[in-house]
Design brief:
By secondary structure, the protein is mainly β. It has one domain (4-719): Maltoporin, Chain A (Beta Barrel). A hairpin with a 3-residue loop joins β10 (172-180) and β11. The longest helix has 25 residues, at 4-28. It is globular and about 80 Å long.
Length: 720
């Protein structure tokens, strides 16, 4: 049970934030705000583009204004603005996502089927979050809860959909540059407009670099955890006829980041003699078309292809040869590295028919029907030191998957105020796994998901809804865990335990949700509230077994799990000058019948909270326009403590961060001074529990990776 002081700290901070916002409001409360309205927010991740207030589900849309005012160049810098969304690092970026306490926290050897999907302009990059750079991004849509009808197996817990800006009918161009502490800088450019009659284009390029906030004391360097990211996006739109438009989009990211984040002393000072790296090179394209030549429906086609090369490596001992020389631990130390090279190729084809007003069934029922095919191939080469053979070694594996799905949805008004929506998806999943340790597996199964929702308009301003949705996540293989335990000479009971878990089963999730959405006070206030209960069956959880510095990770099925909570989002345009916002979340989770292998035998983790599932999160603040183009933004964000893993009981600390920005905007210039984590709070974004310090004779202890300290900078954009 968490100590009461954490709740008190949370409520105290909220009270302080509300008081600060009250000071702002007192200055302008007498102003007439009857004409001050909030802009409509359109969601693109649904089958039809809809106003966020009309979607019967919980979701958040983060726009380019927030991205700019936070000085964010990567998705990890904005996720805390959304309720019940968390992330894990263990890499150069926080690239593993969790929604409502569900999601992966790492990937080492074995293939992973993601719980939270990630799309960039319709291209699936799930599990490759380094690619989620934000230059020229229009908005980030975060859909909470299973998306079984729309996205299927890649969205058990939800989906993050990144949409970049589209080509414009008029010429526009901009250049951008920024600089911040830790020798961080970025520069970029965008050009957009007509290329020929009926042909529009857009190109955006940005380079981002930073030394990072780690000092390597052994090497005398301050850039071993550096950032070096190039992102390029391009779009073409051909308006072929009145009925046909064709879009070609693509992106290229070249990421060459360092990875030197863990310290034996749990500080931002490391001793690694062979710092790691976190690299990704991805080339991706999407070709889509919309044909409206039939009176009853429109036909949309989407074909995507991506090719990614990823390399992730680190110094296993986090130290250097000679650390223990002439000390009591002399002879205890070890020195090795671990390196993972992945080649991933993916392709997808989707055909979707969407009814028009003339094509409605029975004159009032909208419908969607589609077919989906996805193929992914992933080759892994792991280069490591084999302590059993006492020599350098290599491990290879290949994992191929195919998904074929049929889906459909009906939306029928039962009365003038009540609408019923029913959707379903059937998916055939086939996989083939083989590796250099002669482990083979070929799991295949039929999967299904869907949703049933009722939305009721209380009046012209308020909609309430009830939602039942089912999501699924395919099973998989623990090929490396067994082979690694055998090669490291682990005891027979450990090998037997892992042998029984060579394959793990599909996880399913039932989500029950009630919500309210509304716009009030002449559209100056927006409110979105959701309460949910999620029943997880055959829940897939990550377990670890370690003996000193040697460890294996595996995925196992617990019998079940429960996730329930609340999400509250409010936006108030209090006057023409002042906008207030509050995004709050509460979450309670539990594991049932999850057995892990401990040092002294089997340990049952039943009744414990799930990992990376903080009990509360918040983001509150305000934005004030001074006039003549000047503005300021102040916000507080934070979250409760959470477990780092499902297999051990180490927790993060709760934390609160203060972010601020001050800027100037006019027709041509956009200048922003920004700062994140003003109070320089230490907070963890990943944690492990094992023995890795020879000075302590490899006794198990907690090791954490810290999030960014106080960072600040300035960005300037000039529009032509």
């Amino acid at each position: 049970m968490k100590p009461p002081m954490k709740t008190a700290s949370f409520t105290g901070l909220l009270a302080t934030a509300v008081s600060l916002l009250g000071l702002y409001s007192n200055a302008v409360i007498a102003a007439d705000y009857s004409d001050d309205t909030l802009q409509e927010v359109v969601v693109t991740a649904t089958f039809r583009e809809l106003d966020i207030l009309t979607v019967p589900a919980s979701l958040t849309v983060i726009d380019q204004q927030l991205i700019a005012e936070r000085g964010a160049v990567h998705i990890e810098s904005i996720l805390n603005a959304a309720p019940n969304v968390n992330f894990a690092s263990g890499a150069s970026r926080g690239r593993y996502l969790q929604i409502r306490g569900i999601g992966e926290r790492s990937q080492f050897v074995d293939p992973v089927n993601p719980s939270v999907g990630l799309l960039i302009d319709d291209i699936d990059v799930s599990g490759m979050g380094n690619a989620a750079t934000l230059f020229d991004v229009r908005q980030v849509e975060i859909l909470r809860g299973p998306q079984g009808t729309r996205f299927g197996a890649s969205a058990l817990a939800g989906m993050v959909n990144i949409r970049s800006n589209d080509p414009t009918e008029d010429f526009e161009a901009l250049v951008n540059a920024g600089y911040g502490n830790y020798d961080s800088w970025n520069t970029g450019a965008v050009v957009s407009g007509p290329l020929a009659e009926g042909l529009l284009g857009r190109l955006a390029v940005q380079q981002q670099r930073s030394d990072g906030f780690i000092d390597n004391d052994y090497l005398g360097r301050d850039n071993t955890n550096n950032i070096d990211e190039l992102s390029t996006r391009g779009k073409l739109r051909w308006l072929a006829s009145d009925d046909l438009s064709i879009d070609l989009s693509g992106f290229y990211v070249d990421i060459d980041n360092g990875y030197d984040a863990f310290s034996l002393d749990n500080t931002r000072h490391t001793l690694s003699d062979e710092p790691g790296h976190d690299r990704q090179e991805t080339t991706a394209f999407a070709l889509s078309s919309t044909w409206a030549g039939h009176r009853a429906f429109t036909l949309q086609t989407i074909a995507t292809w991506s090719d990614s090369n990823l390399e992730y490596g680190y110094d296993e001992d986090w130290s250097y040869a000679g650390l223990c020389t002439a000390t009591p631990c002399d002879g205890w130390e070890y020195s090795s590295t671990d390196n993972y090279i992945r080649e991933r190729e993916a392709s997808r084809l989707e055909l979707r028919f969407t009814s028009t007003e003339e094509g409605q069934l029975a004159g009032n029922t909208d419908w969607v029907a589609g077919v989906y095919y996805d193929q992914r191939d992933e080759d892994l080469t792991r280069q490591f030191f084999d302590w059993d053979l006492y020599s350098a070694a290599e491990f290879d594996s290949r994992y191929e998957t195919e998904n074929l799905a049929l889906y459909g949805q009906l939306s029928m008004p039962l009365t003038n105020r009540l609408t019923l929506t029913v959707g379903g998806r059937w998916e055939r999943f086939e996989a083939d796994y083989q590796d250099s340790r002669a482990v083979k597996a070929a799991p295949d199964e039929d999967l299904w998901g869907g949703q049933l929702s009722l939305e009721y308009s209380l009046d012209q301003n308020t909609m309430v809804y009830g939602l039942l949705s089912r999501g699924y996540k395919a099973g998989g293989v623990n090929g490396d865990a067994l082979g690694r335990a055998q090669s490291n000479g682990f005891a027979a009971p450990v090998i037997d335990f892992l042998n029984q878990r060579l394959e793990f089963d599909t996880e399913t999730l039932l989500n029950y949700e009630l919500g309210l959405k509304g716009s009030y006070l002449d559209d100056s206030v927006q409110l979105r509230v959701a309460a949910f209960y999620m029943d997880r069956d055959d829940i897939q959880l990550k377990g670890w077994y370690n003996e000193g510095p040697l460890f294996v990770g595996y995925i196992d099925n617990a019998a079940s799990g429960e996730n329930l909570g609340l999400e509250f989002e409010a936006l108030w345009q209090l006057s023409a000058r002042l906008e207030l916002f509050a995004n709050l979340a509460w979450l309670d989770t539990e594991i049932d019948n999850f057995i892990v292998k401990g040092d002294t035998g089997l340990v049952d983790k039943s009744g414990r909270e799930q990992a990376h599932a903080p009990n509360y999160q918040f983001n509150v603040g305000g934005r004030y326009r001074f006039g003549d183009g000047f503005y300021a933004r102040l916000e507080a964000e934070g979250k409760d403590a959470f477990y780092f893993s499902d297999s051990h009981d180490q927790q993060s600390d709760s934390y609160e961060l203060i972010n601020a920005s001050f800027g100037y905007q006019n027709l041509h210039w956009d200048i922003t001074l920004w700062a994140r984590n003003l109070s320089d709070e230490d907070y963890a974004v990943r944690g492990f529990y094992f023995g890795n310090d020879p000075r302590k004779f490899y006794d198990d202890e907690e090791y954490v990776q810290y999030g960014e300290p106080r960072v600040f900078g300035a960005n300037a954009t000039y529009r032509f």
